[in-house]
Each structure stands twice: as C-alpha cells, then as structure tokens.
Amino acid sequence: MIRTRNKSADRDQAALARPPLVRELLLVAGLFLVYKLGRQAANGHVEEAFRNAGHVWDLERTLHLPGEGAVQSVLLHSQTLVQVANTYYATVHFPATLLFLLWLYRWRPRHYVWSRRILAALTGAALALHLLFPLAPPRMLPPAGLIDTGQMYGPTVYGDTPATDSMANQFAAMPSLHFGWALVVAVGLIVATRSRWRWLWLLHPLVTLLVIVGTANHYWLDAIVVSALLGVAFAALRLPRPAPVRAPLPWSSAPVPAQVFAAPAYARSAGPR
To answer: If you write DSSP's letter for every residue of 101-116 in order, what string do you get?
Structure first.
C-alpha cells in the first residue's frame, strides 16, 4: 500500500516538474535556430581562421598531443569505414540530442530541465567563442597533411568553397559542439538512469570524438576546450534535488481497527465477582 502511494507521489511530482510542452518546443526550436544563425554570423573571417589554425596546430605539437592523422589513417584503411564515419558526423549530431531531450521530457522531467539548461549554456558559450576565435579545421590546414573525407568519399554537410558556404560556418571548429552535445547526452542519461549498463552511454562521445578527429573536422583541442566549458556549466547549474515526499500518517490512510478501542482481556475479566 505504502509503495503504491510512493509511486503515485513520484508521478505527481514528475508531472509538476514537467514544463508546458508548447513552451519547451519553442525553447528547443529557438536553441537550434540560435545555433545555426550564430555559426553563420561568425562566417567570413577567413584569414584570421587560418592564422588561428596555425597557432592551434603548433600548440598541439608543443603539448605533444597525438596527431589527428593517426586517427584518419585508421579510417582510410577502409572506404566503408570512412563513409560510416562521415555519415555519423552528418546525421547523428542533431537527432541524438533531440531524442535525448524528448525522452527526458517524457520520463525524467526534472533531469530534462537541467539538461536543457546545460545545453543552452554550453551552446551560448561556444557560439561566443566561434565569434571571438574563428578557426579553420585541420582538413583545410596544409601542414596537417589531412584530407577532407566528406568531400572525397561522402556524405558531407559542407559546401565545396568554405569561404562562401551559406549553409554552415566551416570556420567554427573551436570548440566542437558535436563532441560537447554528445557528452551532455551521455552524462544526462547516466545521471537520469539506474541501469548497470548506463555507463555504456559514454561510447557516444567517444565515437563522436574519433569521428570528428578522423574526418579532420576538428582538432583535439576543440574537444578539450568544450569539455572545460561543460565542466563550468555543470558546476554552475546543479541538478535540483527533488522535493521530499512525506510518508502518510497511519491514521490518515486507513481506518483504525475496532480492536484498538476494545477493553483488554484482563480488564474484562477483572470485574466484580
């Protein structure tokens, strides 16, 4: 009986934590729109983007980070593997994040609000950095010696001429929102679930990292910087604690048995003789 009431209380609490659907649809749509418009607004800084790319490449070598070419060389052993990586880069980013938000909204509304705030903060910080630090990806940098796997093997989400690409800003490599959003999805699902297998969600950001580096769309530092931004967001926006559920009092949930008011046996037998 008590367990049933606790489940009912949990459902009531979840319903109270779930924000209005129409408002959330508008907020999420606005988040994606700002993401696209913000990346396009940072377009056009070609010379600065290539200059910054040289600095990032030199810094990675100074820090003795592994070369991005090591990952790409593995992909290039199989044309099928390259095409799978390109497809993953082009098609998983947005749908996976959207499905993640929809699942949380339906089944974990408290975690949904927290994750949506984290995504909004991370995306806003990343777009600001795109404006302040335009960066050409390693596939465009001659010293890197990497190829554009999307253009060569397909599919690709970018145009042939980066400087005039009206669909996306190809000079917004720093930081990598592909990796940042994948990390939010993995952490959000780990926190929101209790399965012993939930740690396998970390495979999503791990595969995403190998894909963005192997296809030469991002540097290692792009993933490191977005991880640092995400760490700040997690520290600033804590998951709110659920409101405590009080156990029902015994007399408020069931009628008191009549035996409580009956005289004890010894009292009934102690009358006058």
So the answer is: HHHHHHH-HHHHHHHH
User: Helix crossing, 203-214 with 68-75: angle to 10°?
Assistant: 90
Contacts of 233 (CB under 8 A, 6+ apart): 118, 121, 122, 125
- Three-class SS state of 172: strand
pLDDT in tens, 46-64: 899 999 999 999 999 999 9
Beta bridge partner(s), residue 172: 135
Q: How far apart are CA 157 and CA 175, in angstroms?
A: 18
Q: d(Cα 114, Cα 119) in Å, to the nearest integer? A: 9
Torsion of CA 61, 63, 65, 69, to 10 degrees: -10
Tokens of 51: 């200059």
Question: Any bridge partners for residue 135, and if so which?
Answer: 172
Amino acid identity, position 174: M
Q: Higher confidence at residue 268 or residue 36?
A: 36
Distance of CA 165 to the CA centre of its chain: 27
Confidence check: pLDDT of 266 > 50: no
pLDDT over 80 (residue 264)? no
Structure tokens at 223: 């993933």
Place of tokens 């990390």: 183
Give the model confidence (pLDDT) of 93-123 as tens digits.
999 999 999 999 999 999 999 999 999 999 9
- Residue 171 burial (10 A CB sphere; 0-12, 13-18, 19+): buried
Label residue 243 exposed, middle or buried (CB < 10 Å: 0-12, 13-18, 19+): exposed
| Residue 158 near residue 150, CB atoms below 8 Å | yes
